[in-house]
Amino acid sequence: MTLNIRRLTTAALGAVAMVVVLAAQERDIQPSCKMCPGTYVPNEEIQAYVKRAIANQLTDQQIRSVDIGRSNVAVAVVHRGKIDNPNATVAEHDLVSEVYHVISGSATLVLGPDLVGKERRPANLTTVRLLNGPGNNAKAIRNGVAHQIKAGDVVVIPAGTGHQFTRIDDHVTYVMIRVDPDKVTPHKSEADSKKDLQTDGRSTAGGGRGAATDPRR
Fold first, then answer.
1. Best CA proximity match to 74, nearest among 20, 18, 127, 3
2. Which structural domain, as residue segments, surrounds residue 9?
3. Cα R_g (the chain), whole angstroms
4. pLDDT tier at 6 (50, 70, 90 boundaries)?
């Protein structure tokens, strides 16, 4: 008898779930980004930014930033040179999450949300204004987890999570997708990108000895 009751209960729950699914399908659900165009970024454009990064000693460069309805999504490319510093500055972004796809090189990347010695990033920094919004630098990550990243790897860094490169063997280059649900950073179109690539990138890049801002930021 108990077994039969359990079977009946399971069947009833399944029927209820089916009704809920069908009801959801029948609702007039509209896309969260109505009539929005897709965005294409060719590899040639990415490589042009990488080339400029190496030539002009730049680090973080935004390629696109588009509105997808409930969020902005940006595509950037980052090139970092060789370092070996266990006390390197930690970065953290309050509102913008990041996804890395490593395209060349290797590095040790430490991740964690518990930051030690936080220092607020000035609001007028290029990185804050144009790239990743408000956040903090920090001296260390308490109980941080070290990851050995290499070409082909993907890293997801939620907003509020500290990230710290403590070692880069020769270089590391990665495409970065930024998710900005609060829309705190400006849009950047294909036309904007073409204009940017006609410059040396100092005024738009974040970090690096060639950038207009403090490379420690």
1. 127
2. 1-30
3. 22
4. low
